[in-house]
Design a protein that fits this description.
By secondary structure, the protein is α+β, with helices and mostly antiparallel strands. The protein has 10 helices and 13 strands. The chain binds the ligand Nc1nc2c(c(=O)[nH]1)N[C@H]1C(S)=C(S)[C@@H](COP(=O)(O)O)O[C@H]1N2 and molybdenum atom.
Length: 321
């Protein structure tokens, strides 16, 4: 395991990196990506839904951010989702997100920055080298996945716009496409879905701008064309299909905090010792292991404590949940 890599949860779950890499290499050699597009059947998806996902996004593995745990299958990653704009069912995003229009797409960065700017998504894809990083995703609903995301650190983009000294927080505003998003009729969330981070969290190298997964452009249901991944926080912090990033002085009131502040906090750091008021957060179900497989222990900061705990030194994590 490379230096600084996150220790695996259980030895039984390990796929040695070398095995995984060679399998990946073999798939590339065999040109299975192209085959899947042609047949539209390899993953059991119809071609309309698979088409976007089959567009390649070459990425270089970054061993600094690598888990050796068994990866969640591509099928599970793209068919068991939370994306309430398309419905609250786990398969709704897979079912309905093909209507999301991902081009043209711009991302506006504004607020407390010296150089506010609107970027075209295709320019952001070229802004930095695309890396592959294997991250845990731990949903607040006590299930988890291990996902090879493709992208680069959010800090790379934020530095371009030069945050001012007043930039204490970062707010993410996500897309609203009436007509294309059947879930918007549900008023659970006061759309758009928004999320936020403290500036040091946003600038942390682990915080990732994600454009792809499994070496391909993000499927719509995973937040195409660009989402964030913040692996030490519950999944709801990782906003999908971002259209605006606002740097602000005051802590933004994010979607879930607005809905139920007693259940969902701004920080939302994964914490097995702080239960959700309606369920425990001590263990999790690994998607793909089968419903009756033993649950695995949830780790503090989702296993990323060594890298991120210092940012919360002196804070009461029971109050700042
Ligand atoms: N715009 C938007 N982003 C969102 C959500 C959402 O409903 N809308 N759900 C969040 C939740 S609860 C989780 S667990 C992750 C799921 O990401 P995945 O479906 O790619 O695994 O996306 C997050 N980002
Ligand atoms: Mo979630």
């Amino acid at each position: 395991m490379p230096k600084n890599a996150i220790p695996p949860i259980a030895a039984s779950e390990i796929t040695p990196e070398s095995v995984w890499l060679s399998r990946r290499h073999w798939l590339q050699q065999a040109g299975l990506g192209a085959l899947a597009l042609g047949s539209g059947g390899l993953l059991g998806m119809d071609s309309a839904r698979a088409a976007g996902a089959e567009q390649k996004l070459p990425a270089t593995p970054n061993p600094e951010y690598w888990l050796s745990n068994k990866q969640t299958s591509e099928k599970d990653v793209s068919s068991y989702n939370n994306f309430y704009e398309f419905g609250t069912g786990k398969t709704d995003p897979y079912e309905y997100a093909d209507k999301l229009q991902t081009r043209p797409w711009t991302i506006t960065i504004e607020g407390e920055v010296a150089k506010p700017r609107t970027f075209d998504i295709d320019d952001l894809l070229k802004l930095a080298a695309i890396e592959e990083r294997v991250y845990r995703l731990r949903c607040v609903e006590a299930w988890s996945m291990v996902i090879p995301w493709n992208g680069y650190s959010l800090s790379t983009l934020l530095r371009k716009v030069e945050p001012t000294s007043k930039a204490k927080y970062v707010e993410f505003i996500t897309a609203v496409q009436p007509g294309n998003m059947p879930g918007l009729n549900d008023r659970i969330i006061d759309w758009p879905y928004t999320e936020g981070l403290r500036i040091d969290e946003a600038m942390h190298p682990l915080t990732m701008l994600v454009f792809g997964v499994y070496g391909k452009m993000l499927p719509n249901q995973n937040g195409a064309p660009m989402r964030v991944a913040i692996p030490w926080k519950y999944g709801f912090k990782s906003g999908k299909s971002i259209v605006k990033i606002r740097l602000v002085e005051k802590m933004p009131v994010t979607s879930w905090v607005k809905i139920a502040p007693n259940e969902y906090g701004f920080y939302a750091n994964v914490n097995p010792d702080v239960p959700h008021p309606r369920w425990s957060q001590a263990t999790e179900r690994r998607i793909g292991d089968g419903f009756f497989a033993p649950r695995v222990d949830t780790l503090a900061f989702n296993g990323y404590g060594e890298q991120v705990a210092a940012m919360y030194a002196g804070m009461d994590l029971r109050k700042n949940y």
